[in-house]
Amino acid sequence: MRNRILFTLVGLGILAGLVSAYVYARPKRALPPAFTPASNPYGQGIYANGIIESYQENGENVNMYPEVSGTVIAVSVREGQTVTKGTPLFVIDDSVQRALVAQQEAQAAAAQTMLDRLRAEPRKEELEVSHAQVEMAEANLKSAEDQLDKQVRARAIDPRAVSKDVFDNATNAVRVARANLDVVSRQYELTRAGIWSYDTRNQQRQVEALNKAVAASAALLGKYTVRAPADGVVLSIHTAVGSYLSPQGAYDTYTQMLGPAVVMGASKALLGVRCYIDEILIRRLPAAARMQARMFIRGTSVSVPLEFVRVQPYVSPKIELSNERTERVDLRVLPVIFRFAPPKGLELYPGELVDVYVGET
């Protein structure tokens, strides 16, 4: 009985093994692809890697770098926002520069006040004081002359009536009074003439120099608020309140390099595609008049026809995705720019990689 049970279990195990081998040996049906892979739609088309950009009539996206250094105290826009020319994007702490402008404005105002004072010369009060000094000098001269005249007449009657020492003192007093009258008279004429023209021109130049310094400082103060240079869309913001910015840009923790603080592009009515043609395929590019291309969106079965715009006539080294120069390889590419209208129902973003085939009509 026991042996019968063992033989039965062995038979069942063999049968289960055969069934399992049959089941697992059957070929599995391949799953259908999630999307149709990109295929060359042209007879002799050229394949190229492409990247979607906001369409610009010339150049690339606008990379915003501040012209001054400092801590960001405000970010006035958000990513994806449509802005007009002159819209503030972000603000850098300008407290020191603002204080400098106020100081220079005060210095310019003080210099202007001094210039106005010089132009208002002579003052009425100064003229009156100077004229009174002339009158006093005239009175002193008249008194000295009277004293001398008395001594002259007394000496004419009796030479011994006036000593030589007293007579000489009276004579000298007249000379001193006459000289003093000449000095105060000249001083009066100088006061009446007003300020010297050279002094006025010198002060005028100082006022102009200080006003220009104020204008330069005020212009620099305006650089602390970075504004949109044209109408467009804010594509990306690489800074935040409290971050430090310099003219070299903002630090990117992903690439560990410096980059633009804000990247702006054109409106989404049209998008551009920048294709990189391998240097060994450049000679196969068709003429611009006959060139056409089709873009394939990765991860979908969607393809979009492209309109040729221009060739960037500069063959440059190919750079990998991180944009680090250390990733340069011995391969050069020619950028070719196309544009297209975004298809409805499919959201596309600048910076997205696509497959492009370039052919000719």
**Structural class estimated from helices and strands:** alpha+beta
- What would CATH call the class of the largest domain? Mainly Beta
The number of helical runs is: 5
Oligomerization category of the chains in this entry: single chain
Could you tell me the CATH topology label of the largest domain: Elongation Factor Tu (Ef-tu), domain 3
Proportion of helical residues: 25-40%
Strand order of the largest sheet: 1-12-16-14-13-17
Order of helices and strands: HEEEEEHHHHEEEEEEEEEEEE
The general outline is rod-shaped
Uncertain stretches: none
Count of distinct strands = 17
What is the total domain count? 4
Kindly provide the radius of gyration, computed on alpha-carbon positions and rounded to a whole number of angstroms: 47 Å
**Approximate strand percentage:** 15-25%
